[in-house]
Amino acid sequence: MSNFPRYAIYYLPAVGSALAQFGAVMLGYDVVTGADVAFAPPTAAVADWREITADPRGYGFHATLKAPFTLADGRRDSELLWACATFAETPRAIPRIVPVIRPIGRFIALVPDVPSEPLQQLAADCVRDFDGFRAQLSAEDRARRRPEQLTPQQIEHLDRWGYPYVMDEFRFHMTLTGSLDTARHDELLALLRGTFAATGIDRVAIDRIAVLRQDARGERFKSIAQFELRSADY
Predict the structure, then answer these.
(1) Are strands 107-112 and 204-205 parallel, antiparallel or unpaired?
(2) pLDDT of 88-129, one tens digit each?
(3) Is residue 234 in some structural domain?
(4) Whole-angstrom Cα distance, residue 213 to residue 226?
(5) Is residue 200 part of a domain?
(6) 107 SS3 class
(7) Do the domain assignments include residue 177?
């Protein structure tokens, strides 16, 4: 079985929204069109901005709900898309967050200002409901997750769900940089927060899921479908 293509279930901002445009110009990549875009002008002051954003650019501006996976034998991407459409039609509480930009470990991301139970539930539902499409991890892929550096709970999640940072370990984040020395955080936080403040975005509804595809190692992920979630209040 080939490890590619790989698929992922992500939150992507609505096409054409201010948040989608912000993410695209910060990373230099539009994950919906698959095209490079010009970086936001403020980044010109940072000589190595392209290198700083190289890792997140490969995935596009997103939040992971179901981490990248290879389809299980006998599964087709058309079935995955149908399952996503069905999932989106199920009425649910739509998570709404106040977005802030903060360091998470060694990288910087857009995150909710406070934890959101509906958001945790949405992520858990995605992990659980789409797991039947996921091929089991190979020994090589499991080793890439460096289980020796994980907690027992994270190892349990890795072996059960194919990814360690799910369920109680899940933290919603939309990555804006690669791994950085903490000494650079202050400089880049000021730039990122200033650029984000200029968008005027003060609330974000996590109101859709997207299916992304990566065709080969080293290629970027690209959105192949988005599905708006039905609100239980609708």
Answers:
(1) unpaired
(2) 999 999 999 999 999 999 999 999 999 999 999 999 999 999
(3) no
(4) 12
(5) yes
(6) strand
(7) yes
Residue 139 neighbours by CB under 8 Å, 6+ apart: none
With tokens 């910060």, the residue in question is 26
Amino acid at 188: L
Q: How far is CA 65 from CA 41, 47, 76, 136, 188, in A?
A: 31, 32, 20, 18, 26
Helix, coil or strand: residue 19: helix
Task: Provide the residue range defining the domain that includes 17.
Answer: 6-227
The separation between CA 95 and the C-alpha centre of its own chain, rounded to angstroms, equals 16
Contacts with 128 (C-beta within 8 Å, 6 or more apart), sequence order: none
Residue linked to tokens 């929204």: 17
pLDDT, one tens digit per residue, over 14-71 is 999 999 999 999 999 999 999 999 999 999 999 999 999 999 999 999 999 999 999 9
Q: What's this model's pTM, rounded to 2 decimal places?
A: 0.95
Question: What distance lies between CA 23 and its chain's CA centroid?
Answer: 12
* Tokens at 67, concatenated: 């981490």
The answer as to whether 232 is a domain residue is no
Give the total number of structural domains in the chain: 1
Q: Residue 103 belongs to a domain with what CATH number?
A: 3.90.1140.10
* Separation between Cα atoms, residue 69 and residue 133, nearest integer Å: 8
| DSSP 8-class letter at 31 | T
Within the chain, residue ranges assigned H as helices are 18-27, 49-52, 54-57, 77-89, 117-129, 139-144, 152-161, 185-197
